[in-house]
Specification:
With 158 residues, the chain is an alpha+beta fold. The chain has 3 helices and 4 strands. Strands 1, 2, 3 and 4 form a 4-stranded mixed β-sheet that branches. Strand 3, helix 3 and strand 4 form a beta-alpha-beta unit. The longest helix has 20 residues.
Length: 158
């Protein structure tokens, strides 16, 4: 990424109607110097959440409480599963940090899975946003056993 150019620092030159603009203010200027792009935290959360869910061995994202609340809201008519559940990010001008709460499938080597999740998240976020991902912290909150129901999110009555 290039540095952001402040229009106030360019000076106050005036141009006549027929004069072509050149330099940083003209048609030859690189597109990245012609404005500012900001990326909301929620955008990076969604990208990181999707990238983490694509890794084989991830059962779900979110800590116990967020999964329980999410299961309730998912059952509400019109409710949709939250892609960013279990994902927290900090986004700066050029960098991002990602924290993930995951539930892994039983039998999957957690160290290898965490490395795969980091690779997937870093690749997706950097490719789609241009931000440098400085860290991806993976917290394994639970292990999903093969005999557990997927609907065991703490809801007993429907």
């Amino acid at each position: 990424m290039s540095d952001i150019i402040n229009p106030a620092e360019r000076g106050t030159a005036s141009f006549s109607a027929g004069e072509a603009l050149t330099g940083q203010a003209g048609a030859d200027a690189a597109p990245e110097t012609r404005g500012r792009t900001t990326i909301a935290d929620s955008v990076v959360e969604k990208i990181a959440g999707m990238a983490a869910r694509e890794v084989a061995g991830i059962h779900s994202l979110g800590s116990g409480m967020s999964r329980t609340l999410g299961a309730v809201t998912d059952k509400v008519p019109g409710g949709r599963p939250s892609v960013s559940r279990g994902v927290k990010v900090e986004v700066g001008e050029r960098q991002a940090a990602v924290d993930l709460d995951v539930v892994v499938e039983y039998g999957v080597p957690i160290v290898d899975l965490a490395a795969d999740v980091r690779t997937s998240v870093i690749t997706a976020v950097e490719r789609m946003t241009g931000l440098e991902v400085v860290e991806v912290n993976v917290a394994v909150d639970d292990v999903h056993l093969p005999d557990e129901d997927d609907d065991e999110e703490g809801i007993r009555v429907q």
